[in-house]
């Protein structure tokens, strides 16, 4: 049995973009004290759970989270005292009921998730287990393949690239550690290439470079060059994943797509699908997230029909880690994979429910960070516990991202020869 909750307390901290976010401390009657911190997105889906912000209160330009902090301290905390930290699902359901809305807009998903994560970590500590083992059990010993975001565009950078994320994925490596090394080397090689062309090597929100390139294609081609120059084989050792985050360049979230940053013009849903086919033919693309906008369910379905047998088509903004939308997607064959973000739905239990639904349907799922992160490494343990085989958590240039990679290295070492590394 785990210890019982004696205190729950929240405070306001800063995330990696310098915006306020919520940290929650949980104490148990066996002496356990832990904390957890909540991430925050920039390219958010319309149907995501609500992140409660203070608005015009003036502090932090209206982005403060003191209301969410107060909701933890005054509304949630008194209800949890005396409960066993191991009763995760009961605690999460109680918070969902206390909130009373489908999108957690009363208490805030940032308040609720902070408590949910801290309760999970407290239970693990109380039992003397690593978080991944507590959440996943002995069965979970696979370290996910990392998708390292090495060129940033879209809402995560102020450059000429429309596609939000270009990721290097070391799927052919023999282990997580070797794979991580190969993409870190690719990242450094990419810097040299950009520099030699007089391009900027400053980084975007997720730590990838954010150069002004002539086209989106040039971003992929430069990454391929970097993979080769670093001594690896594109499509054999390292593949490419994309996150178009297409909602961010579709003003109506569905029928037109404006590639205005790169000067690529205005495209229809069918044009986007044709572009997808050209790129998958030409480049070693493994996964493609949000190739179409969140209300373009039909476009998404056609994209998957054309390319779903060749690559993983991942829904992020369209599914928002919510079983209601994932279920529709499974019925309509909208995609074949789901991006899992804890703060899109707001509790650990509901995130696990989303993963379960994917597994039952034979869909893949990818555990993901947010563009605004903290030093909390919860995500790394969560990814191992969910046994999904792939994680995206940014580049090798920002500590809030590296913290997750380093935690995965630790887990790999802890598992020793029993660690598995593969996906597909
Ligand atoms: O779109 C995404 O997948 C995420 C994370 O990379 O970005 P954000 O957190 O800004 O929504
Ligand atoms: Mg995305």
From TrEMBL:
<comment type="pathway">
    <text>Carbohydrate degradation; glycolysis; pyruvate from D-glyceraldehyde 3-phosphate: step 4/5.</text>
</comment>
<keyword id="KW-0963">Cytoplasm</keyword>
<feature type="binding site">
    <location>
        <position position="341"/>
    </location>
    <ligand>
        <name>(2R)-2-phosphoglycerate</name>
    </ligand>
</feature>
<feature type="active site" description="Proton donor">
    <location>
        <position position="206"/>
    </location>
</feature>
<feature type="binding site">
    <location>
        <begin position="368"/>
        <end position="371"/>
    </location>
    <ligand>
        <name>substrate</name>
    </ligand>
</feature>
<feature type="binding site">
    <location>
        <position position="370"/>
    </location>
    <ligand>
        <name>(2R)-2-phosphoglycerate</name>
    </ligand>
</feature>
<dbReference type="InterPro" id="IPR029017">
    <property type="entry name" value="Enolase-like_N"/>
</dbReference>
<keyword id="KW-0479">Metal-binding</keyword>
<feature type="binding site">
    <location>
        <position position="316"/>
    </location>
    <ligand>
        <name>substrate</name>
    </ligand>
</feature>
<feature type="binding site">
    <location>
        <position position="371"/>
    </location>
    <ligand>
        <name>(2R)-2-phosphoglycerate</name>
    </ligand>
</feature>
<feature type="active site" description="Proton acceptor">
    <location>
        <position position="341"/>
    </location>
</feature>
<dbReference type="GO" id="GO:0005576">
    <property type="term" value="C:extracellular region"/>
</dbReference>
<comment type="function">
    <text>Catalyzes the reversible conversion of 2-phosphoglycerate (2-PG) into phosphoenolpyruvate (PEP). It is essential for the degradation of carbohydrates via glycolysis.</text>
</comment>
<feature type="binding site">
    <location>
        <position position="289"/>
    </location>
    <ligand>
        <name>Mg(2+)</name>
    </ligand>
</feature>
<protein>
    <recommendedName>
        <fullName>Enolase</fullName>
        <ecNumber>4.2.1.11</ecNumber>
    </recommendedName>
</protein>
<dbReference type="Pfam" id="PF03952">
    <property type="entry name" value="Enolase_N"/>
</dbReference>
<feature type="binding site">
    <location>
        <position position="156"/>
    </location>
    <ligand>
        <name>substrate</name>
    </ligand>
</feature>
<comment type="similarity">
    <text>Belongs to the enolase family.</text>
</comment>
<dbReference type="GO" id="GO:0004634">
    <property type="term" value="F:phosphopyruvate hydratase activity"/>
</dbReference>
<dbReference type="InterPro" id="IPR020810">
    <property type="entry name" value="Enolase_C"/>
</dbReference>
<dbReference type="Pfam" id="PF00113">
    <property type="entry name" value="Enolase_C"/>
</dbReference>
<dbReference type="GO" id="GO:0000015">
    <property type="term" value="C:phosphopyruvate hydratase complex"/>
</dbReference>
<dbReference type="InterPro" id="IPR020809">
    <property type="entry name" value="Enolase_CS"/>
</dbReference>
<feature type="domain" description="Enolase N-terminal">
    <location>
        <begin position="5"/>
        <end position="135"/>
    </location>
</feature>
<dbReference type="InterPro" id="IPR000941">
    <property type="entry name" value="Enolase"/>
</dbReference>
<feature type="binding site">
    <location>
        <position position="392"/>
    </location>
    <ligand>
        <name>(2R)-2-phosphoglycerate</name>
    </ligand>
</feature>
<feature type="binding site">
    <location>
        <position position="165"/>
    </location>
    <ligand>
        <name>substrate</name>
    </ligand>
</feature>
<keyword id="KW-0964">Secreted</keyword>
<dbReference type="GO" id="GO:0000287">
    <property type="term" value="F:magnesium ion binding"/>
</dbReference>
<feature type="binding site">
    <location>
        <position position="316"/>
    </location>
    <ligand>
        <name>Mg(2+)</name>
    </ligand>
</feature>
<feature type="domain" description="Enolase C-terminal TIM barrel">
    <location>
        <begin position="140"/>
        <end position="424"/>
    </location>
</feature>
<keyword id="KW-0460">Magnesium</keyword>
<feature type="binding site">
    <location>
        <position position="392"/>
    </location>
    <ligand>
        <name>substrate</name>
    </ligand>
</feature>
<feature type="binding site">
    <location>
        <position position="243"/>
    </location>
    <ligand>
        <name>Mg(2+)</name>
    </ligand>
</feature>
<dbReference type="InterPro" id="IPR036849">
    <property type="entry name" value="Enolase-like_C_sf"/>
</dbReference>
<keyword id="KW-0324">Glycolysis</keyword>
<dbReference type="InterPro" id="IPR020811">
    <property type="entry name" value="Enolase_N"/>
</dbReference>
<keyword id="KW-0456">Lyase</keyword>
<feature type="binding site">
    <location>
        <position position="164"/>
    </location>
    <ligand>
        <name>(2R)-2-phosphoglycerate</name>
    </ligand>
</feature>
<dbReference type="GO" id="GO:0006096">
    <property type="term" value="P:glycolytic process"/>
</dbReference>
<dbReference type="GO" id="GO:0009986">
    <property type="term" value="C:cell surface"/>
</dbReference>
<feature type="binding site">
    <location>
        <position position="289"/>
    </location>
    <ligand>
        <name>substrate</name>
    </ligand>
</feature>
